[in-house]
Write a structure and sequence with these properties.
- The chain has about 700 residues and is α+β, with helices and mostly antiparallel strands.
- It folds into four domains: about 30 residues; about 200 residues, Penicillin-binding protein 2a (Domain 2) (Alpha-Beta Complex), CATH 3.90.1310; about 325 residues, Beta-lactamase (3-Layer(aba) Sandwich), CATH 3.40.710.10; about 70 residues, Trypsin Inhibitor V, Chain A, CATH 3.30.10.20.
- The strands form eight sheets. Strands 2, 3, 6, 7, 10, 19 and 20 form a seven-stranded mixed β-sheet that branches. A six-stranded antiparallel β-sheet has the order 13-12-11-24-23-22, with helices on both faces.
- Strand 23 and strand 24 form a beta hairpin.
- Helix 3 runs antiparallel to helix 4 and helix 12 packs across helix 14.
- It starts with a helix and ends with a strand.
């Protein structure tokens, strides 16, 4: 029987029409979904898929020059309790809820007692005892909260781990309801030491705010990753699209030991009744490299105590006062306008200069009379310096300013800090500011021009460094995973600030300032090592009211280097105070002396130890070697007292021990005595202060 051709064609047409209808339905539905129902389905998709979720990068650490952690990102934890089980399966949800409630009720006393032991501190004004936690948890259960904050403060890692050992809390978050939110916090283990130099982050956004944190933010912050989450079987699963790139670490030039000592010595002087300073600054620099080993900025608070409030040593512009006389006298030597044989009649301590009277500090006692070139610096004679400079450059003051600049005085240092101050040196030929005849003599003794304290130290460091002026350095290297990936070399600002003969003469004078001049208190009587430098005392103008309105304010200072015969370090100490007495040598000199003796004592100890240990064929190890020496005897508990947390953990974990940490700083005690036998996976607690 032949097939009915017409029937086949009809069936084909029916199927074709059906497919067209289905196709039109699909297309129209898709168009309807993408247009009319777009907002609805977008909201639905958000419940199941979350796009572009940032994965925060871990910010890099900042270390001191010896590897001690000065600023680091440490995880803290917000503790939450979910009192309501969520599950599409009603039976499973009711079963899980019943179990969670029963365990919570049965173990509530144990949980609250444990929390009270873990968090002994006050919480929002209330003692966080057992009863306090009971009321708090019961309130959350009553409200059927999904995100009830168990404790209002962030928990440390150790506290979080201790919470995970409590009943119910030790279960998975789905089963027990206990979960945490990890927050990376910027911590400074050494407190406020060099805090304004290190810098800080904004509390609301963790964005860099100031200091090295801001200057090297591109290195420290890293790069956030990207992820999205999907809801699968009533659980959200995080899927990483782009991994986060953690920030690199910085090795700073700061030495926490020198920083700590300088701060304590300066604050002690500021608190003396005869000083009662409103601001104290101190900087220690390594001569050859320009490495800033310590930088202290202590401002008096309203409560009378001293705090790091501002990096004044870098940002504040001040008239340097008598420390500037060294530059003026050096230029006179360099230009052949004076020599060590030059003498000046300082008269009775008062000398008329261009309609004003220049005075020496002892003018009421009759002045100095005739002084030699060296004696002018030794006694810090205003008349002696100003007469030499005025006689040499009064017909061409621009030559004086240009000569100072050739020596590196007044040049920008371009330091890596936002808000840094750059020197302001008036130009005699400038049309912006009127130059009077009296500007030259007063500028020669440290007035008229302004510069930050660190600029003064940079000039004296060049004198100590054989005439080579180097830029102050705050960061030595960039590290990734403990390996140096980039070094920041020392930068030379001026290759040679003056002739060798000029340098020798000025070094001789600066040494005499401490030996027999006003800077005696900055030295040590020559018993330990030689110190060279210059005292400084300058009145501070009170804006438009000038220098003599109300109580006179002073900036007293001492700037120099040590040991004189082979300079290793330069240092400046400045104090801003009101009223008399005001003496750079008498008030800043002793602080300089304490700092210099501390640093040199450290050097002597190291050298002595090296000699002794070399003879005994057991040299004292450096930081890396010290680890290896301790690890050579792994069967005994090592002594980690005095180490930083990072070193101690490294050594103890290498011994196979589990480490529990309490506090910050250096290790003060350990729970197991050194020398005891180690058991496998033995726990040890170290206390840091």
């Amino acid at each position: 029987m032949k097939p009915d051709k017409n029937n086949s064609i009809k069936r084909f047409k029916v199927l074709f029409g059906l497919f067209c209808v289905i196709g039109l339905y699909i297309v129209s539905t898709a168009l309807y979904t993408m247009t009319v129902k777009r907002d609805y389905w977008t909201e639905v998709s958000k419940k199941f898929i979350r796009e572009n979720i940032a994965i925060p990068a871990t910010r890099g650490n900042i270390y001191d020059c010896n590897g001690n952690l000065m600023a680091g990102s440490i995880p803290e934890y917000r503790l939450y309790m979910d009192f309501v089980v969520i599950d599409k399966d009603t039976t499973a949800r009711m079963k899980a809820q019943a179990w969670r409630d029963s365990v919570f009720n049965a173990t509530l006393d144990t949980i609250c007692e444990g929390l009270a032991n873990i968090f002994p501190n006050k919480a929002r004004g209330h003692k966080a005892n057992k009863e306090w936690f009971r009321k708090r948890l019961l309130e959350g259960k009553k409200r059927k909260s999904h995100a009830w904050r168990i404790y209002p403060r962030n928990a440390t890692y150790i506290q979080y781990k201790e919470c995970k050992e409590l009943p119910l809390f030790k279960e998975t978050s789905y089963k027990g309801g206990f979960y945490v939110e990890t927050i990376m916090q910027r911590k400074h283990p050494y407190g406020s030491l060099a805090s304004r130099t290190l810098g800080s982050l904004r509390t609301d956004s963790n964005a860099a705010k100031n200091g090295l944190e801001l200057s090297y933010d591109s290195i420290l912050r890293g790069k956030d990753g990207v992820s999205h989450s999907m809801k699968i079987r009533n659980k959200r699963v995080r899927i990483v699209d782009v991994e986060a790139e953690n920030g690199h670490d910085l090795v700073s030039t700061i030495d926490v030991d020198i920083q700590d000592m300088a701060e304590k010595a300066l604050v002690a002087k500021l608190k003396e009744p005869s000083v009662n300073g409103e601001l104290g600054m101190a900087i220690v620099m390594e001569v050859a490299t320009g490495d800033v080993k310590a930088i202290v900025n202590m401002h008096r608070g309203k409560d009378g105590n001293y705090y790091e409030m501002k990096n004044s040593a870098v940002s504040d512009l001040m008239e340097p006062g008598s420390t500037f006389k060294t530059a003026s006298m050096m230029l006179a030597l360099e230009e052949g306008k004076a020599s060590l044989n030059t003498t000046v009649d300082c008269s009775g301590g008062v000398y008329p200069m261009h309609g004003r009277f220049m005075k020496d500090h002892n003018w009421r006692k009759g002045g100095y009379g005739v002084l030699t070139f060296s004696q002018i610096l030794e006694q810090s004679s205003n008349i002696g310096v100003s007469r030499i400079i005025d006689d040499a450059f009064k017909t061409n003051p621009q030559a004086y300013v240009d000569g100072l600049r050739r020596m590196g005085v007044g040049i920008p240092l371009d330091l890596p800090f936002v808000g840094k101050g750059e020197p302001r040196v008036p130009q005699p030929n400038s049309k912006i500011r009127y130059w009077s005849k009296s500007d030259l003599p007063w500028m020669s003794i440290g007035y008229v021009s302004q510069q930050p304290v660190i600029s003064t130290l940079t000039f004296y460091n060049a004198i100590a460094n054989g005439g080579k002026m180097v830029k102050p350095r705050f960061v030595k290297a960039e590290m990734e995973n403990g390996h140096i990936v980039r070094e920041f070399p020392t930068e030379v600002l001026v290759e040679q600030i003056c002739k060798p003969s000029t340098l020798r003469d000025i070094q001789f004078c600066l040494n005499n300032v401490v030996k027999i001049g006003l800077g005696k208190k900055a030295g040590n009587g020559g018993k330990l090592f030689q110190v060279s430098g210059k005292t400084g005392t300058a009145q501070i103008a009170s804006g438009k009211r000038g220098y003599h309105s109300g109580v006179t304010r002073y900036m007293v200072s001492f700037c120099g280097y040590f040991p004189s015969e082979a300079p290793k370090y330069s240092c400046i100490v400045c104090i801003v105070k009101s009223g008399l007495p005001a003496s750079g040598g008498g008030q800043c000199g002793p602080v300089f002396s304490q700092i210099s003796q501390y640093i040199m004592a450290q050097s002597v100890e190291r050298k002595t130890s090296d000699i002794v240990d070399t003879l005994s064929h057991s040299p004292i190890p450096n930081k890396t070697d010290r680890h290896q020496v301790l690890l050579n005897n792994l069967q005994e508990v090592p002594n980690v007292v005095g180490m930083g947390a990072k070193d101690a953990i490294y050594v103890l974990k290498k011994c196979g021990m589990e480490v529990e940490i309490q506090g910050t700083g250096t290790v003060k005690s350990q729970s197991i005595k050194p020398g005891e036998a180690i058991e496998k996976q033995q726990k040890i607690k170290i206390v840091l202060e």
